[in-house]
Design goal:
2 domains, globular, alpha/beta, single chain, Rossmann fold, disordered C terminus
Length: 470
């Protein structure tokens, strides 16, 4: 059986693994031969030309160091100040610095040079996310002939947004060097296909204006999921129960509206709190009877646009408190720190409403985790953005336009008033979809499709299934 080589911006560290993706990939590598390759998290004076290998809790990890300047250009610069806002259709937040692209390519070339000596001819390479779009092209340039797959965890941009990205044609040509490209949702594949079929020629004389050939690259929607049954177990674990009891004492019978997100401008947090503000303004009967909890740990807080989002959210939360709070009642709690999965699972289970309203998102696993954590006898209601990839597989949620805060406020009212029978019917359909699109089957399916022709089998699925129930 071929080895699996996972490549991502960061490698896993020691201690508990956060997130379904990392858990699934760890299972792959613990049960099949292979290793995980990526940046160590260290910044040095000279870039690493060779990788350091170590065993981290049963997984072989190969790491390289980056220089401070290269990391800034590659990560904070091109990846997160150009690609991230553009892929999320926030061109107004994109900062264009031409030298960042040079650093982005330089780091991808460094990854390729350090990875190549570790490869065997039959290794299957699985590259993750927008930081590493050029990696297959760099590996091919060095002579690698392995099967290489790429998975985009964020949304794919519309053609107009794509054309605004510097060197977009070269990036798309890089994608054509992969054997399999997976995306979160059908809308992403549709946007990609629209570009592929209607490529715009360069306006600069002398540039290569040949259309990019994607005929040897398979493109498909491969929606990622979580582990819903694992979250169901976590939601009744001792740590979850402890969190639930603490919250129940604090709530005193109030119904909980819960949001859990990174503090990122793509998550629509200011709009979400504004919708809650309108719920209270339009429905006085809910005051003192509901409470909103927004958990939002900081994300990329050295980038100006993220700091501005944090400041805006602080101001809106202050406005809601000032308008509606009473000496003996607070309408909301806003927490800027992360919690472990057991505590989150307890909060999910307690919440009457899971409020998941990003302005644009690849999938959004919070929606999956919320569904998995519900009490089967008394489930809550998922209010979900139409612009999250999860909306394609969770049509039984209350789907909203997060830009329309009146619509979201009305969805909150409907969710809070929804009778048990309807809540049960909706949740059962959502849970069936979450189980169908679980993260283990996602990894198995992608790797089976990426495997060299004639070698894919049920072996990987059997291994991962045994690991998931162990």
């Amino acid at each position: 059986m071929s080895r699996i080589v996972v490549v991502s911006n960061r490698t896993p560290g020691k201690g508990p693994t956060a997130g379904g993706l990392a858990v699934a990939l760890r299972k792959v590598l613990m049960e099949r031969e292979g290793f995980w390759f990526g940046w160590s998290g260290k910044l040095t004076e000279q870039p690493s030309e060779t990788a350091r290998l170590e065993d981290i809790e049963g997984v072989t990890v190969a790491q390289i160091d980056l220089t401070r300047d290269d990391h800034h250009a590659y990560y904070a610069g091109f990846s997160n100040s150009i690609l991230w806002p553009s892929f999320h259709l926030r061109l107004d937040l994109a900062t264009i610095e031409s030298h960042w692209y040079e650093g982005y390519r330089r780091v991808n070339a460094q990854f390729a040079r350090a990875l190549l000596p570790l490869l065997r001819p039959d290794d299957v390479i699985w590259v993750h996310d927008y930081h590493l779009i050029p990696l297959a092209a760099e590996l091919r340039r060095l002579g690698a002939r392995n099967r290489i797959g790429f998975y985009l965890h964020i949304p794919f941009p519309t053609p107009d947004a794509l054309y605004a990205i510097p060197n977009h044609a070269e990036l798309m040509r890089d994608l054509s060097r992969y054997d399999l490209v997976g995306m979160q949702a059908r809308r992403d594949v549709a946007a990609f296909t629209e570009f592929a079929e209607h490529q715009s020629p360069s306006t600069f004389v002398g540039d290569n204006q040949d259309h990019i050939d994607f005929s040897r690259t398979e493109i498909d929607a491969c929606p990622i999921g979580s582990e819903p049954d694992a979250f169901a177990s976590l939601s009744t674990s001792p740590a979850a129960t402890k969190m639930v009891k603490r919250m129940e004492r604090s709530l005193g019978g109030q119904r909980l509206i819960l949001g859990v997100d990174r503090l990122d401008y793509s998550k629509g947090l200011p709009q979400r709190v504004e919708a809650y503000e309108k719920l209270l303004a339009n429905n006085a009967r809910f005051r003192r009877h509901v409470h909103m909890l927004q958990v939002a740990p900081p994300s990329r807080d050295t980038i100006k646009e993220y700091q501005e989002t944090s400041d805006t959210l602080d101001a809106i939360c202050g406005r809601v408190m000032g308008h509606f709070a009473e000496p003996d009642w607070q309408p909301l709690t806003y927490v800027k720190r992360a919690y472990g999965q057991p505590s989150l699972a307890g909060l999910y289970r307690l919440a009457r409403v899971g409020l998941v309203t990003p302005l644009r998102d690849g999938m959004n696993l919070v929606a999956h985790e919320y569904v998995g954590s519900q009490n089967p006898k008394d489930p809550g209601v998922l209010v979900l953005s139409r612009f999250a990839g999860a909306a394609e597989i969770f049509p039984e949620a209350l789907l909203v336009n997060p830009f329309d805060t009146d619509e979201t406020a009305e969805a909150l009212r409907i969710a809070l008033d929804m009778p048990l029978e309807e809540r049960l019917e909706r949740w059962q359909a959502l849970m069936a979809a979450a189980r169908k699109h679980n993260v283990v089957d996602w990894a198995v399916s992608f790797l089976d499709r990426l495997a060299p022709r004639g070698t894919a089998s049920s072996a990987t699925r059997d291994i991962l299934y045994l690991a998931s129930v162990a």
